[in-house]
Amino acid sequence: MEKSWLEGKVISCLGDSITQGVGNNDVSWAHYLADMLPVKRINNYGIAGTRITKGPGWDQPFVDRYDKMDPESDIIIVFGGINDCNHALPLGTVDSYDAETFYGALNTICDGLQKKYPLADVMFITPMKASGFKGYRNWKVRAENGLCLLDYRKAIMDVCENHSIPVLDLFSESGITPDIPEIQKLLLPDGLHPSKEGYLKMARKIANFIQHRL
Fold first, then answer.
1. Per the count of CB atoms within 10 A, which of 7, 59, 181, 214 is most buried?
2. Domain enclosing residue 86, as ranges
3. In the structure, what pLDDT confidence band is assigned to residue 42 with cuts at 50, 70 and 90?
4. pLDDT in tens, 128-162
5. CATH number, domain at 150?
């Protein structure tokens, strides 16, 4: 059997509650990924409630954590943005490095990861559609600042394109949506966090992306 290029590799996953595994006893897609790929280890840096963007009173944003991961990381997965959207954080401009804006934090993270891990494969995942958790608005509804989840998804795509970083677009391709009651009941019961079946579905898509797109 041909040896997989993934053997002996280290994967680090930077994320929020969906990477931590909220809704499934802290067992997330990252845990299931370890059973699907022949890697050495998978580090889970998912912390519930965290945002990509920095700001007063926001604990442990991605932009403060990306440079504190395993120095042996061969593959780095960044998966977030839903909390930035739910709290209507400012986008800023596509060329900004102001970490208190979404674009600025993304640029800071992408630059920082590529400089600290120049040989690693970095990838991003766009946030999945959500609705209703803790009263947060449906993904299609715009906040008072005029932004909805689609705008944050576009920002991730823009910045990653500028940095030549591949993106798994689970916003468009997860097969998981709160807008279909039958799907929400089985895969996204609280409107935001996947069930075990939802996390497994995500893990299969992420594993396939790593194997065939990186």
1. 214
2. 10-213
3. very high
4. 999 989 888 899 999 989 999 999 999 999 999 99
5. 3.40.50.1110
